[in-house]
Amino acid sequence: MPIHDQGYRRYLGSRAAVGRGWLVITKAGIRTVLAKRSFIGLMLLAWAPFVVRAVQIYIAANFAQAASFLAPKAETFREYLGQQGIFVFFVTIYIGAGLIANDRRANALQVYLSKPLTRAEYVAGKFAILFLFLVAVTWVPAILLLIIQILFAGSFTFFRENIFLLPAITLFSLVQVLVATMTMLALSSMSKSSRFVGVMYAGLIFFTTALFNAIRGITGLTSFAWISPTETLEQLGNLIFRLPPAFDMSPIIAVIAIVTLIAGSAWILERRVRGIEVVQ
Amino acid sequence: MPEPHGGMSGADASLDKIPTLSTDSHTPVVQCDQLSVHYGKNWALKDVSAEFLPGAVGLLGPNGAGKSTLIKTLLGFIKPDQGRMMVLGLDVAASPLEIRSRIGYMPESDAHIPGMNAVSFVAYCGQLSGLPFADAMQRAHEVLYYVGLGEARYRNVETYSTGMKQRIKLAQALVHDPDLLFLDEPTNGMDPKGRDEMLDLIRDLAQNKGVNLILSSHLLPDVEYTCDRVVVMDKGAIAAAGPIEALKGPAGRVYELRIKGDAAAFIDVLQREGYECKNTDEDVMRVFVPGTPEQGSRILFQLAAREHVQMRHLRPSVPTLEDVFARAVGDV
Question: pLDDT digits over A4-32, tens only?
Fold first, then answer.
C-alpha cells in the first residue's frame, strides 16, 4: 500500500479568528530562542549587574556605615539602565539579526504571507520577540531593583521622594528597546545573512559613535551627538531622569533623531517585508 | 466523501467556523476579470479574464507565461494595475485574509521556516492558519504521513532533499484543510519516482479528497495526469481554456500512413469518405479517423484493400495536451 493511502481527512474543528497570527509567531520565536543554551548564558550575564545592584541596596539598607556611599539615588537607576546598554546591544544582535534575514534566506515570507496574516502582523510578531527579551534585560530588572529597595529599606520614603523613577524607568527602557528593536528589524529585512546583519548593526553603532567622537575631537562641539543613536539615547536618558544633559544638544533634536530612526526603520520594513521580490 | 477529522465534534465545529465551499460544480472557485500586472515596462499579465471551475485545473504555459504572477496576484502578493479577482466567491481586494484562511499555497521555490523540524514547521503553519495548537499538531502528523514524510518528520527541514522539500511544501499547504490549493510547479527538481508519487498525491487530493486545486506547470504530462481542465497561458494572456478532452478535439485518432503507389489518389479517396487527411513533406499522410482506436486502423486497412493500395507504414498518433498547447501558443 502506498504510504499516502494512510489518508487525508477534512478538518471540522475550530479556527481562531483572523488577527492572532502575530502571537503564534512570537510564541514560536520565544521557544526557539529559549532552547539555545548560549542565549540562557547571555541572559544570566545580563542579570549579573542586577545582582550586584541588589547587593548594594541590601548593604546600604542594613549597614549604616555603608549607606553614605552605597545608598541608591535616582542616578543609580539611570546608571543601571545605561550599563544595561551593552547587554541590549548583544541581545539585539543575538536574537534580532536572524529574525527576518533567516526567513528571507529560506523564502519563508511567502509561506507566512500565504496564511491569514498581514505584513504588519508578521512584523509585529517578530518585533514582540526581540522587544520582550530586551524588556527582560532593562525594564524588568530596573523595576525589580526599585521593589527590592522598598523591601530592604522597609519603607516607601525613597520611592515617594523619587516617584518619577517609575515612569522614568519605563519611558527610558521603552525608548532604548524600541530603537534597538526597530533598527535591528529593519537591518534584518535588508539581507538574507544574519551574520551580515549583525555586522551591519554593530557597524552602525560603532561607526556613528566613532564619527561623533571624531567630530567632537576636531570641533570641540557636542551638538552633533544626534549622529550617534547611542549618544542620543544618553542625552534622552539624562533628560528623562532629570539629570544634567550629557551633550550640548537640544532635547527636541534628540527626540527628532530617535523618531526619525524609528520611522525610517518602519519605512524600510514596509518596503522589504513582502511575499514576492519584484526586480523592476 | 472523505471522513471528517475524528477528534472534532460537531459542537466544536461551531466555533468561528469558516464557511465551506459550495458544492456547485459550475460555480468557479477563481474568477479573474480584465486582470493586468506589469513589472517595470513589461506586462506580466495583460487583460486576463478566466474562470477556474471546481476540481483540478491545470495552469499551463511556458516559463515566463505569467502563471506564477497570476497565482501570486490571486494570493494578494502583487497588487494588480487593473482588474478584479474573486477566489471562493470572495473579492481578493476586499477579503484577502478570509481567502488565505481557506486556501493552501505550495510555492515554486524552496520555502520553509528555518530552524524547525518537519512536525513543528507544519504544525506552526496550521497555527498560523488559525488551528488550535493540539489540532495543528495532530493534523501535522497526519498530513506528513499522507505526503510520505512520516518517518522523517522529526528531522530538521533544512536537511531534507529536494524531493522531501517539495513534499513538505505540500504538507504545509494542506495542514489547515484548504478548500482550494495553489500548486506552483509541484514536481520541480524531483526524481521520476518522486514525481510520480507527487502526481498521485495531487490526483488523489482532487479526485478522492474533494480538494479543489490549481496546478501551475510547464510540464504537459503532469497537467494531463492530474487535471480535468486546463487554462493555457502565453505571454501574459490566456491562450486557451476548457476541459482537456474538449480541447483535444473529437474522440478519434490521428494515423501516420505511408503507402506504395499514388498517394494523392488515396488521399482523394480518404477525403471522399469524409476523413480529414493531409500529406506531409516526407511522403507521410496524416489521417484523422473518428471512433475507437480499433475501429480506426480497421477502417484504414479496409479502404487500402478496397483501393488495392499497399500499406507500408501505419502508426497511431493520439492527440495530446501537447498538441493543444502547441496550437494555443501558436507553435503549429
Answer: 455 788 888 888 887 789 999 999 999 99
Model-level pTM?
0.83
Q: Give the three cell numbers for residue B148.
A: 510520505
The minimum CA-CA distance between A14 and chain B, rounded to whole Å, is: 5
B124: chain A residues, CB-CB within 8 Å: 24, 28
Helix (H) or strand (E) holding A247: none
Least confident segment among A2-11, A59-68, A107-116, A205-214: A2-11
Contact A280 B127 (CB under 8 A): no
Query: Hey, are the CB atoms on A105 and B132 less than 8 Å from each other?
Result: no
Could you tell me the CA-to-CA distances from A213 to A226, A247, B5 in Å, in that order?
12, 12, 65
Average pLDDT over residues B58-72: 90
CB contact under 8 A, B16 and A15: yes
> What confidence score (pLDDT) does residue A7 get?
74
Whether residues B77 and A274 touch (CB distance < 8 A) is answered with yes
Contact assignment for A10 to B3 by CB distance below 8 Å:
yes
Which chain B residues are Cβ-neighbours of A17 within 8 angstroms?
16, 130
Taking an 8 Å Cβ-Cβ cutoff, which residues of chain A contact chain B? 2-4, 6-18, 20-21, 24-25, 28, 32, 98, 102-103, 105-108, 110-118, 274-276, 278-280
Instruction: Please give the interface size between A and B, counted as residue pairs whose CB atoms are below 8 Å apart.
Output: 172
Q: Which of A115, A89, A34 is nearest to A208 (CA)?
A: A89
8 A C-beta contact, residue B125 and residue B172? yes
List, in order, residues 6 or more apart from A134 with CB less than 8 Å away. A88, A91, A92, A176, A177, A180, A181
Q: Which residues of A157-196 are buried (b: 16+ CB within 10 A; e: fewer)?
A: ebeeebeebeebbbbbbbbbbbbbbbbbbbbbbbbebbee
Cα first-last separation, chain A = 49
Nearest-neighbour CA in chain B from A40: distance (Å): 18
Query: Distance between terminal CA atoms of chain B?
Result: 42
Our CA-based measurement puts residue A36 at a distance from the nearest CA of chain B, in whole angstroms, of: 11
**Sign of the Cα pseudo-torsion (B140, B145, B148, B150, in order):** positive
* Tens of pLDDT, residues A151-183: 999 999 999 999 999 999 999 999 999 999 999
Confidence at residue B3, expressed as pLDDT on a 0 to 100 scale: 43
Min Cα separation A173/chain B (Å):
30
d(CA B160, CA B140): 17
pLDDT recorded at residue B252:
73
Q: What is the mean pLDDT of chain A?
A: 93
Strands (E), chain B: 30-39, 42-52, 56-60, 82-87, 90-91, 103-106, 180-184, 212-217, 229-234, 237-243, 252-260, 276-279, 285-290, 310-317
Tell whether the model's pLDDT for residue B17 goes beyond 60.
no
Q: Which residues of A touch B130 (CB under 8 A)?
A: 15-18, 20, 116
Q: How confident is the model at residue B332 (pLDDT cuts 50, 70, 90)?
A: very low
pLDDT higher than 80, residue B212: yes
Its ipTM equals 0.88
Residue B6 pLDDT: 37
